[in-house]
Amino acid sequence: MRGNYRKFCFSAVASLTAALMMSTAPLPAAAQQCDAEEGGASKTLDPRVGAEIQKLYELMQAEQYGEALTGFNNLIANRGDSMKAYDKSTVYELRGSVKVNMENFGGALQDFQTALDANGLPANRNNQLRYFIAQLNFQMERYQTAITGLNQWIQNARTCNVEVDSNAYYLLAAAYTQISPPNFRSAVQPAEAAISGMGEPRKGYFDLLNLVYSELNNNAKRTPLLERMVNLWPDERSYWTQLSGAYSVMGQDQDAFSVLEVAYRAGLVKGENELLTLIQYYSFFDNPYRGATLLEREMNANNIKRNQKNLILLSQLWSQAREHKKSIPILREAAGQSNNGELYYRLGMVLLADEQYAASQRALESAINRGGMESKDTGDAWLLLGTARFSQAGPEDTRIWARAREAFVNAQRFSNSRRRASDWITYIDAVVTAYWDGRKLEYQQNLDACKDDIARFERDQRIRDLQNREASAEEIEQQQARLGECKALEEAGPPSRNRSSAPDEEEAESAPEEATTEDDASANEQ
């Protein structure tokens, strides 16, 4: 504002100079009409007053404002009552300019108002005083008074075909935004006029109109305005992010993404929220690998916090990019920061998809032990735990089958997993039945083979008796070994899941279901 006040001063001095020169140049008809509307007949200074002003004017040119102010004070004290209207208005106009340069805005305001009230100046100079008064009221935060004065000045200027300074429109729009409550709708026209009437682009003008459009949610006008702003000031980071946001609000997500990406490549996007928005755009537009790479790089640069929320996002991006090996340790790190089992449940799912069945089992057991999950997730956790356990079983691992079945039984308690769990139980029961049927068949086959071998041994002995020959030591050893096997087989009896012939399964059936919390060593396994 200080620069504007200096301009006020020079405008007043220019008016004084014109008066001292007593210019008689003819005015256009419209200007003459405006000039005749106000002020007295005399538009020349009294010679004695003019001589005093000339001295004080030289002090103003030398920026000796203190001495000039003293001179004007003395002039008003000595001749104030005797001065005609034109002299009085001119003297107060100039003293007001001196006070502006001394940053005595309240005093300047009073002097300009006195000069106006004296009604001694031509209409154009009176109107210029109204402009100064309105600007000073704005400076002193008397916004409603400034609005009234600026509107009056603009109206008078238009009537007299005087070009309206774009700064006047800017101040008027700014004043509308400062009153309580702000009147952004009334600020639109003067803010637009300020930009259309300016010479060189002024950043403050654009910022004001951008604010007005934003407050009115007028993105249809705000978006092209921001496009101009990023072209005029390409290094202004906030303009790029605002333009991206405006595109997003209008549903132009591809444009919003492109703008943000260009700004990032130019090194203008550094805020965490803006970076995360760009990263999520990569995911939205089917480029999760690039999003994950960017997120990891910015985390390592400490531009994005390595907290649980962002670790989850990173893990999801790696999973979307089908980089499960990279996703798993990130999700495990996030799970370690959690107080409930939700993240361990997610970790278990990823590990299961990556066929890391033992690690998946541990993660899912941790999820169930920690709890705090929604009912549907708990049911799914039991279902996945049964799957992870069963996937580790060999062709005769009845104990593992039983442990998997117990997990599926627990999964049946939840409506969302009941049907799938029941299907698994039916399948496991069929596998177990087939296993024991096979065991029984194998036993009977071995028993029949023993009977055949014993009959053969008896036949061989009769042949040796007829030959009057003794069995060799090797034959005797083989017969005794085989007879021992057959005796043991007969004593054991046919296999049954209810007998001690399957100690592992009986142990599993009698043991309570439990989940072992993943320890630090197993947590590092992938």
TrEMBL record:
Protein name per Swiss-Prot or TrEMBL: Tetratricopeptide repeat protein
Region described as Disordered: spans on this chain: 485-526
Signal peptide span: 1-31
InterPro entries: TPR-like_helical_dom_sf
Domain of life according to the entry: Bacteria
UniProt lineage: Bacteria, Pseudomonadati, Pseudomonadota, Alphaproteobacteria, Parvularculales
Alphabetical UniProt keywords: Signal
Key word Signal present: yes
Biased composition (Acidic residues): 503-526
